[in-house]
Amino acid sequence: MHACTESAELGLYTRPVYNLSREDSTNPLILVCEHASRYIPEALNNLGLDEAAAREHIAWDIGALQLAEQLSEQLGATLLSANYSRLLIDLNRPRHAPDSIPLQSEIYPIPGNRELDEATREYRRQTLFKPFHARLQMLIDERIAKGLPVRVVGIHSFTPVYYGQPRPLEVGVLFGQAQDYAQRLLDGLQAQPLKVAGNQPYKIDPLGDMTVPVHGDARGLEAVLIEVRNDLLRSPEAVSRWAGYLAPLL
Ligand SMILES: [Zn+2]
């Protein structure tokens, strides 16, 4: 006998899963912001986090959406951004990665993810994860079908203090196969008065990352992930400065 259970979260995800801007752009660049939002439906009570923790970097990439939007506007490039918190399901993890639906994020336990049954885990995969990646795949397919070039760039931000350790790095370019493209970006950023590094503060791991390995490397497309330290993205002026550094290089 097969018991078919319904998720307790059925019908909770009423907002669109993603925002898509400048869909018909012919700029080769497709910007992706998987951690753009900290939105968690009210009925889920911030997954048991207090209000301060639910506003922290664990729930979203602070400032990343503003930076991605500004780049999209300046370059006329397509931008796909998420409308739900990464704590529900992380769009930049393979769907069966252990931290796809995190039980713990950095120093914060996520109580609301502890007791999830498989029906709810699958519901989040089907409702939040699948449509986002299907749309990204379709965007790429459409460009390729038209013979247009494609590059995929994830825009992220990272916390200045991680497990109690301050991080002096200001911007990282994370890559797998796209070494030449990443090197061009690194060279351009290093020409600025910035603390820059390749594959820091994280590395692309095909078992732990989604957008770069799946939509880029596996398809032979240039793909990188940009990480900007989030304390440098806290005002419109600061975001503009970073858009100014990045836009000519992407
Ligand atoms: Zn991120």
Q: Strand portion, in percent?
A: 15-25%
The 3D shape can be described as globular
CATH class: Alpha Beta
Catalogue the unreliable spans: none
Order of helices and strands: EEHHEEEHEEEEHEHEH
Helix content, binned percent = 25-40%
Structural class: alpha/beta
Number of strands: 11
The distinct ligands, each listed once, are: zinc ion
Give the mean pLDDT. 95
- The CATH superfamily appears as Zn-dependent exopeptidases
CATH fold title: Aminopeptidase
- Radius of gyration equals 18 Å
What are the SSEs and their pairings?
Elements: E1 18-21, E2 29-33, H1 51-54, H2 64-75, E3 78-82, E4 104-105, E5 108-109, H3 118-145, E6 151-158, E7 161-162, E8 165-166, E9 171-175, H4 179-190, E10 196-198, H5 211-216, E11 222-229, H6 236-246
Parallel strand pairs: 2-3, 2-6, 6-11, 9-10
Antiparallel strand pairs: 1-3, 4-5, 7-8, 9-11
Bound molecules: zinc ion.
